[in-house]
Amino acid sequence: xxxxxRTEIPGVPLSGRGKVRDMYDxxxxxxxxxxxxxxxxxxxxxxxxxxxxxxxxQISLFWxxxxxxxxxxxxxxxxASAYPEPLRPHERLLAGRSVLVxxxxxxxxECVARGYLAGSGWQEYRASGTVCGIPLPPGLxxxxxxxxxxxxxxxxxxxxxxENIPFSEVERLVGAGLARELRxxxxxxxxxxxxxxxxxxxxxxxxxxxxxxxxxxxxxxDEMLTPDSSRFWPAATYAPGGGQPSLDKQxxxxxxxxIGWDKKPPxxxxxxxxxxxxxxxxxxxxxxxxxxxxxx
Length: 296
Prior knowledge:
Layout: E1 14-17, E2 21-25, E3 29-34, E4 39-40, E5 43-44, H1 52-66, E6 75-77, H2 91-94, E7 98-102, E8 105-106, E9 109-116, H3 119-128, E10 130-131, E11 134-135, E12 145-151, E13 154-155, E14 163-164, H4 167-174, H5 176-199, E15 202-214, E16 217-221, E17 230-234, H6 250-258, H7 272-290
Antiparallel strand pairs: 1-2, 2-3, 3-7, 4-5, 6-7, 8-15, 9-12, 9-13, 9-15, 10-11, 13-14, 15-16, 15-17
Helix pairs in contact: 1-7, 4-5
């Protein structure tokens, strides 16, 4: 199986490389290319996951289209045959794993919605009874559904792990009015997506969004409701009181924990069964949520 670990587009300025995405500057627009790189615990793993970038790109496009009436998004086109001339020779590489988007002035916070108690939220709750400083009822178990979804923002880190922050810090960073709008749009998008997914047998336990400003308008960008940015649990096997089977990146995190990796270099190689296991999960969640296979 062919995989794309890194892209190079001669003659087109590279704007930056994230853990997973390569971004190219086209003047008044950006090209975002989703590679098959995989990150976990703030490290890029040595193995690519075939088709992963296409899943991330195409599931994001599905959600951008589905929620465009809730919050506008940054998409111009994902049709590689319609990209500007400098990109045309690379159509085969870009098809299915890239999108041309409008430039935004990005908010410096990750906008996380949580409907269930998991991950770092569960760890904080066990220690203090709160999540991002938000008090929760006593006696909740791991993976319990919360009384209502909550907004738990994080400060974006240039390196290392994003840091959970209270809402007051979001107000300080972006102003009270924009902070309230970020919270409202995050919870609105989550509620809409969670209801849709549950009809298809999937619980969205939590997810993160990124927003930017285009003029004075709030726009959602980057990725959206992917298995890299969300916890997807099969509703049929949901049983609070412990961790849940997942159709997302948690499968690899769990393997790394089981082998006792200390989260320091060198980053371990993934065995073939873990690579294929994650690939199968990504393809499956795309198929369940969108009702179709990825376009290759």
